[in-house]
């Protein structure tokens, strides 16, 4: 019973981490709102880029709380954060890409 040795397990591409940056960043607003401790997120332990991003967002959120002393940040706050997210993505093209 020789199966021929062909490996059919390569259809699922994995990057080595359970969550990729796009997925993680898409979850960020929810994580913030739910009050989750972002330092406990597995992705942040392995990804410097998102770690720095979260630091920025925490700073923005703190500033927003100072400006708006309410429990829930308004949707406008998240809109601002999303805007700064997308502008950061556009600026991250300086790395040499193979
Ligand atoms: Zn990441």
What does this structure look like?
- This protein is an all-alpha fold.
- It has one domain.
- The chain has helices spanning 21-34, 42-46, 48-67, 75-91.
- It is globular, with a radius of gyration of 19 Å.
- Residues 8-17 have low confidence and may be disordered.
- The site of zinc ion has 6 residues, from helix 1 and helix 3.
- Residues 21, 24, 43, 47, 49-50 line the site of zinc ion.
Essential attributes:
98 residues; mainly alpha; 4 helices; 57% helix
Helical content stands at: 55-70%
User: Roughly how many Å apart are the termini?
Assistant: 42 Å
Radius of gyration over alpha carbons? Answer: 19 Å
Task: Give the overall silhouette.
Answer: globular
């Amino acid at each position: 019973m020789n199966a021929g040795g062909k490996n059919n397990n390569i259809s699922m591409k994995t990057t080595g981490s359970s969550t990729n940056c796009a997925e993680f960043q898409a979850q960020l607003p929810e994580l913030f709102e739910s009050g989750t401790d972002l330092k406990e997120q597995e992705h942040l332990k392995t990804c410097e880029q998102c770690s720095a991003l979260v630091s920025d967002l925490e700073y923005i959120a703190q500033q927003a709380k100072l400006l708006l002393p309410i429990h829930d940040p308004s949707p406008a706050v998240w809109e601002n954060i999303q805007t700064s997210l997308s502008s950061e993505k556009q600026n991250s093209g300086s790395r040499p890409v193979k």
